[in-house]
Amino acid sequence: MENSSPSTSRKRQRADEPEPEPESELNDAELLSFEENFNFSDTLVALRMMRAQFPPIDKVSIQPFILRSQLYSSVKDRTQVDRELESLRRERVLRTFKLSTGQDDHAIMFLDDYFSQIERVSKRLEAQKQEDLSVFQWFKKHVIHSNLDPNIGHEELRSLLSLGGKVKEEHISLLINAGLLTRQLIDPNMYWFAIPNIGSVLKGLTQGRKELMSFLNRRKYKEMAMTALEKKRLRLSPLDMRFHLRDLLGSGHLKTVESPTGLLVKAVKD
Asked: Which region ranges are annotated with the description Disordered (predicted)?
């Protein structure tokens, strides 16, 4: 009879069998219907799930982002969401960005994804033979890690960038042109941090909101089964139905109603 220690047996098993996918839980969850994974008790779990479900977008190079309104639709305690978002922001797990699509619109992106987005922009400019791209490294190392707010003043920006090297106004112009900063209209000496390449997606977000609301408002009772609605495609938005449903439910433009056949999505009257 052949002797084999438990540890040897385990080693052989690990060598012969493929390692389980670390993201398997998320991949399995993606297969569930929207109704089945609609609610979460934890903000970080919700963020990771929504990141995994972010729709692929043709012709736009952008990392996944989540809207704060989407979290409000899935984690019922808004105070908890705000508190946990603030904690994750201070721990430098994620960043929050003010969007131009509405006064209360904020996008959330995991910091690793944001760094990947900056790297993509830098490489694109490098391919265009742009010079003096060192400002992107200064921005990542000194500005992003030091300033956790959604905005930054001109003097603070120059001061933090100068930790990397001698700052010129051309450096700040390059960051603006790359889509990493946008000037505030009220105060031109203040900037919003921004997500590069997001412009066309935000246009689709606005149009998709209108299209979905119009679709429901045209129905007799301004409602539809969630399972049927999530299968529909929007013509005017690159974002999928799940993305828009979570957004509009969290912002209060839609609500869910229990029915014998499952959840109904209903337009809320103004």
From this structure: 1-28
